[in-house]
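Section 5: illustrative case.
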């Protein structure tokens, strides 16, 4: 702890206990698990190994707090969220250090993430007071109909490791704004950021039991099952793989919980013949290589019109040669490690599969063992074809895989040839084409001449097997509300 603490201005943000009912607690068993820096494999900290009984206590705390929190005036909830936002920004540098230590992303990227994460508390602090119902004309003139929107109850929130701050705040912000209480299962790979956020919630004055943060590694499946089957939990929000999402959805069916799932993607990135190639390059760098390709909205298949194919691919190769891979704390580092060895292995398998089926390696393609076992070189593959694993699986790594196409219809068919539909991107100067393609892509989010589409004001989510529900924007609060109809007789 001393090593990490020495990097922090406020060492009290580094928490190694779970936050339940306003107190810092360990697992009843006393068991812990290790958190490692993926760059160096150094031990960062140890966190509690919660089990089913520990999780039960957190759920009961949230349940007890909900009874009063749901009646808290919206303005009061808004002020708490705004205070939480302010505290995150005041502790920006320390939060970024914690994130880079456990996640590996370059420190500058962690700073950007914390700012983005805080913005959800600001956004939903403003939405808390704008939860409106309706009045409806009844067919019976002796009756009046109105609707009320009410908080759904205790929410189980299961967050991923790739954005350990933002993927939590994007769920907690609307939940608290709506009047719900939460039990947050922090990602085992990166739990310290979540615990630091809990400390700031405490400082913001959010009442005990409203926000609970629990951790587990070996017991992750057990804890997840408690959250998805417990009758007190009324809603579950999960960000992660499609496979795990299906498992959790099956478990949630036992109690018919309300769900919002943001699952895997296989994003197409289309460059048409009339595109501004410099703008497309900028968009691709933002979309493909952020967090070394470990985001659900990363471009996974890059489709380029044959007339500009060679030129654009060479532009990308020239650009990635300027990247600097290494420890996230290193000077000038642009890209860090993958989260663990299994992730690096999968990237390597995707490269070998593509090359065995005719792809051409233009850059990278190899692990970087001198940096550590979790590092893989920035890779560019050309002459990709349908049937390769990258067409069917989300790589979640630093591979730019290029496919050539000849017609607009061909590009759309290639883009939609997948079971998932989270994000899609395309670049064109033709305004009519922009409307046609945006409407034709089978995804929940489209970037038109832009490669970064995340914003607190934007509804984030997918279709098909990428899930359902939306996070962020004016729609993001709806998943934490129930609609009640009230009919009143006036005679």
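Designed sequence:
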């Amino acid at each position: 702890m001393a090593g990490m603490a020495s990097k922090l201005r406020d060492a009290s943000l580094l928490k190694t206990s779970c936050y339940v009912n306003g107190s810092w607690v360990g697992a009843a068993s006393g068991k812990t698990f290790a958190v490692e820096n993926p760059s160096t494999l150094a031990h960062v900290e140890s966190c509690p190994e919660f089990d089913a009984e520990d999780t039960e206590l957190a759920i009961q705390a949230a349940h007890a707090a909900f009874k009063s929190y749901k009646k808290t005036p919206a303005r009061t909830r808004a002020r708490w969220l705004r205070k939480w936002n302010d505290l995150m920004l005041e502790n920006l540098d320390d939060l970024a250090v914690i994130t880079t230590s456990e996640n590996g992303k370059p420190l500058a990227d962690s700073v950007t993430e914390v700012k983005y994460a805080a913005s959800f508390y600001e956004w939903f602090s403003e939405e808390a007071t704008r939860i409106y119902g309706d009045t409806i004309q009844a067919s019976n003139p002796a009756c009046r109909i109105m609707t009320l929107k009410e908080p759904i109850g205790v929410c189980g929130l299961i967050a991923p490791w790739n954005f350990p701050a933002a993927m939590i705040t994007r769920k907690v912000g609307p939940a608290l704004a709506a009047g719900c209480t939460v039990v947050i299962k922090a990602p085992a790979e990166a739990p310290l950021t979540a615990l630091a956020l809990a400390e700031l919630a405490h400082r913001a004055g959010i009442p005990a039991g409203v926000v609970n943060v629990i951790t587990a590694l070996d017991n992750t499946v057990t804890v997840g099952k408690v959250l998805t089957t417990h009758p007190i939990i009324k809603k579950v929000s999960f960000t992660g793989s499609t496979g795990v999402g299906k498992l959790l959805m099956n478990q949630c069916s036992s109690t018919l919980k309300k769900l919002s799932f943001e699952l895997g993607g296989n994003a197409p990135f289309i460059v048409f013949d009339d595109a501004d190639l410099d703008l497309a390059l900028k968009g691709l760098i933002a979309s493909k290589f952020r967090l070394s390709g470990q985001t659900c909205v990363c471009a996974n298949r890059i489709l380029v019109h044959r007339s500009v194919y060679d030129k654009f691919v060479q532009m990308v190769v020239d650009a990635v040669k300027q990247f600097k891979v290494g420890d996230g704390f290193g000077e000038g580092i642009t890209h860090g490690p993958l989260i663990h060895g299994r992730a690096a292995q999968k990237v390597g398998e995707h490269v070998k599969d593509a090359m065995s089926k005719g792809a051409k390696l233009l850059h990278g393609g190899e692990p970087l063992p001198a940096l550590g076992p979790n590092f893989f070189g920035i890779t560019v593959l050309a002459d990709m074809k349908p049937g390769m694993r990258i067409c069917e699986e989300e790589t979640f790594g630093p591979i730019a895989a290029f496919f050539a196409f000849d017609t607009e219809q061909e590009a759309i068919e290639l883009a939609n040839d997948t079971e998932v539909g989270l994000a899609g991107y395309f670049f064109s100067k033709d305004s009519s084409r922009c409307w046609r393609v945006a409407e034709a892509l089978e995804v929940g989010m489209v970037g038109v001449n832009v490669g970064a589409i995340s914003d607190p004001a934007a509804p984030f989510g997918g279709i098909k097997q990428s899930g359902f529900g939306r996070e962020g924007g004016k729609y993001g609060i709806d998943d934490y509300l129930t609609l009640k109809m009230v009919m009143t007789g006036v005679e």
